[in-house]
Amino acid sequence: MSKIMNATPSSVAPTSGLEGIAAADTALSQVLGQAGELVIAGTPLHQFVAQQTFDEAIQTLWSIAGSDLTLEAENVAHARALAFENIEKLQPVLKGLSPAEGLRLCLSSLSGSNASDAPVLLVSAMPVFAANVARLADGHALVAPDLKTNTAACFLGMLHNRAPSQGEINALDTYLSTVCDHGMNASTFTARVIASTQADFVSAIVGAYGALTGPLHGGAPEPVLDMLDSIGTADNAAHWIDAELARGERLMGFGHRVYRVRDPRADVLAGALKELGAEGPRYGLARAVERCALETLQRHKPDRVLETNVEFYTALLLDALHIPRAAFTPVFAVGRVAGWTAHCIEQQRIGRLIRPSANYIGTPVKAPQDLSV
Ligand code: COA
Question: Which domains does the chain have, with CATH numbers?
Fold first, then answer.
């Protein structure tokens, strides 16, 4: 690891959370925090999303990572069918688990021994698991996947047990492409650490998914909707937000470790909402809450830029697609597994174990030569 600014690793403050540390070389994506730009596969986000579907984006990322793997229809169909067999067997254990917990269990049920096609298995199984754990948590029966449609259509078809409209497919496809990769975020770093030990791909993705579920990472969109529900009406926003900050709480959907301006993904998702024609009453409330939150955060933390992040508009878009809020993090994983698998491929090509050191701050022991004294 090297610290930008030229400091040695031993000077990293224990509370820094590795901020500003470059932990790997990657050609997959670049987060330009000051400019508010995300570049994926060498292309600015809005172009990347416009130029290819999510399923194409997966293959683009794999190819940049140095793999010639493709999503052959036959292999995707086989992996989806296998995933459905697994979830059928796991059904009794899944009852009583939240969708986020259920997805963790389902992913662990995959065999990761065949490294050559493990990425295809993982990206194909993820929508089958994510849609069906959401169904089970709501007391509905499992729905088998369509083996031929793209990821977005397959997921929505199972979740709602009906054929989705083209508008719905496009909106979810835009979401999945938007979140497919994002530099060295916590879950991607986790995936790379596990891959660097030469553990199998499934283990790397289970670990990455665990990191994603926390509210400081991919677990934020569900609380965003809870916040909007609690606020209720626009004229209640200022009072609610002030009280929340006074209690030392964080506003979900705001702030970012790297962006010091608005998260560019927020605008792409706002555009998808508009295209879906889903700017209903909740959208109006959300815009009013966003304005109020930004003003209040600026007053509350004048020395720190706290802007809207991707999770705020994720919550609105996924809600407009009638995806239950408890399933938002699993849906995030359907998109981000593209980046996780690509980073694992890239990491394995580098082939070097990630093993940093720590500053020891415990009880000092005597040096060996002093022990005889
Ligand atoms: N609401 C209120 N205050 C916030 C805040 C938020 N959303 N985000 C950051 N802050 C405050 C912190 O409390 C901290 O104040 P302090 O210095 O008095 O302790 C200061 O801003 C700096 O925050 P810090 O924790 O150093 O930022 P970070 O880079 O570690 O955190 C996040 C980034 C995303 C974890 C953080 O902004 C956050 O918790 N946001 C809400 C959760 C969320 O939306 N997560 C999805 C991320 S995409």
Answer: 29-213+329-350 (1.10.580.10), 221-320 (1.10.230.10)
Q: CA-to-CA distance for 326 and 93, rounded, in angstroms?
A: 18
Q: What is the pLDDT at residue 279?
A: 80
Pocket flag, ligand 1, residue 253 (CB < 6 Å)? yes
d(CA 355, CA 74): 39
This model's pTM is above 0.85: yes
Q: What pLDDT score was predicted for residue 363?
A: 94
Could you say which of 168, 244, 307, 311 is catalytic?
311
Q: CB of 254 closer than 6 A to ligand 1?
A: yes
Sign of CA dihedral 204, 206, 209, 213: negative
pLDDT exceeds 70 at position 7: no
Active site annotation includes 256: yes
* pLDDT at site 282: 86
pLDDT in tens, 226-262: 999 999 999 999 999 999 999 999 999 999 999 988 8
* Distance from the alpha carbon of residue 154 to the mean position of ligand 1, in angstroms: 35
Is residue 311 within 8 A of residue 156, CB to CB? The reply is no
